[in-house]
Amino acid sequence: KYQGIEQVQRVRGLKFKPDFVWIKATDYAQDHILFDSVRGMGKNWHTNNSNAEAYNNNSLTSFEDDGFSLGTSGEISYPDKNYIAWCWKAGGDPVVNTDGTVATMVSANKEAGFSIITYTGVGPGSSGNEATVGHGLDEPPQFYIVKKRSGTALEATAYYTAVDGTLDYSTIDSTNTKSDSSNYHPNSKIINLGGSATNTTDEYIIYAWHSVEGYSKIGSYEANNEADGPFIYTGFKPAWVIIKSADSSSGQDYASWTIVDNKRSPSNFVSGNKMLFANRTAAEGKRGDGTSSSDFELLDFVSNGFKHRAGNYEANSTAPAVQTFIYMAFAERPSAFTNSE
């Protein structure tokens, strides 16, 4: 967490050099703004809309050994406003990857199961002639976000295999339910872009993850809409969790991409008023539809997972039927390896 000031500042204390930084204002409505070291300083995009990539040389100005530095842009450092920054370490400087038919620039942290991939599309594909891109990991990604950086049809899309092992997708800037995917199928080396997925020659960015025992967990669970809600076993105490309903709901407007973390909720208990939503600009204290109050019990971070404490559309709903939710969680104190948080 940090507070905006009227001058440049250094945000410290990460214990690693980040390659991916996701910033959100917590006490006023503002875009989510995402930076990574592969595209370079100042280049950013928003999860809550379908805008093209932007450039602001007064935003994130450097990735450093234990944090990052910021300029004075109001998006990320408005005076006296509060912000949260979620950070991941990839593999540092990107390298050329030729595992696929299309060369990529990849920064991959195989140990942490995370990579950042950029590539340029090659034009229309067809069945049997699909383009593929290398992701740099040793296992197939289980959750990955694909964003076209310019042009049209710019909605970022999350692809995931957590529900039933087949590939599904949902757009990040909406509350839409999952759909079956005919494109972007992964294996341990490449992501197959499919036919229609390569119908432009624009630039793309992909953030890809797979579960790592003791560090991260990607999965799904069924809700019960009760105060004694489902317990989700991760094998570690979470520090950051994103949750999304994969099903159609009678409260679909509330079915946002819900994010909670242990920096804004330092005790085990996480109140609903600490929810932020990847698809909305809303500040803390709002429901998944971005409007009404969210002051209710949500969940607990416990030593080996998280436990739901309320029925709600955001994370534990059975309306109109039992909902399946997908999640991605990261550990507070990773046991898989050292020098990562």
Shape: globular
Q: What's the overall average pLDDT, rounded? A: 93
Proportion of beta-strand residues: 35-45%
SSE class = mainly beta
In angstroms, what separates the terminal alpha carbons?
14 Å
Most strands sheet: 8 strands, antiparallel
Identify low-pLDDT runs.
Answer: none
- Order of strands in the sheet with most strands: 10-11-12-20-14-15-16-17
Our count of helices gives 1
Question: In total, how many beta strands?
Answer: 29
The helical percent reads under 10%
Q: Whole-number radius of gyration?
A: 19 Å
Supply the key terms.
single chain, mainly beta, 341 residues, globular, eight-stranded antiparallel β-sheet, five-stranded antiparallel β-sheet
Structure described in brief:
The chain is mainly beta and 341 residues long. 1% of the residues lie in helices and 38% in strands.
What does this structure look like?
The model has no long low-confidence stretch (mean pLDDT 93). The relative contact order is 0.15. The strands form seven sheets. This protein has an eight-stranded antiparallel sheet with strand order 10-11-12-20-14-15-16-17, with no helix packed on it. 1% of the residues lie in helices and 38% in strands. With 341 residues, the protein is mainly beta.
Write the layout of secondary structure elements.
Elements: E1 2-3, E2 9-12, E3 20-25, E4 33-36, E5 43-44, E6 54-55, E7 60-64, E8 67-70, H1 74-77, E9 82-88, E10 95-97, E11 104-109, E12 114-120, E13 131-134, E14 143-148, E15 157-160, E16 168-171, E17 179-180, E18 185-186, E19 190-194, E20 203-209, E21 216-222, E22 231-233, E23 238-245, E24 258-261, E25 269-271, E26 276-277, E27 297-302, E28 305-308, E29 324-331
Antiparallel strand pairs: 1-9, 2-8, 3-4, 3-9, 5-6, 7-8, 10-11, 11-12, 12-20, 13-19, 14-15, 14-20, 15-16, 16-17, 18-19, 21-29, 22-28, 23-24, 23-29, 24-26, 25-27, 27-28
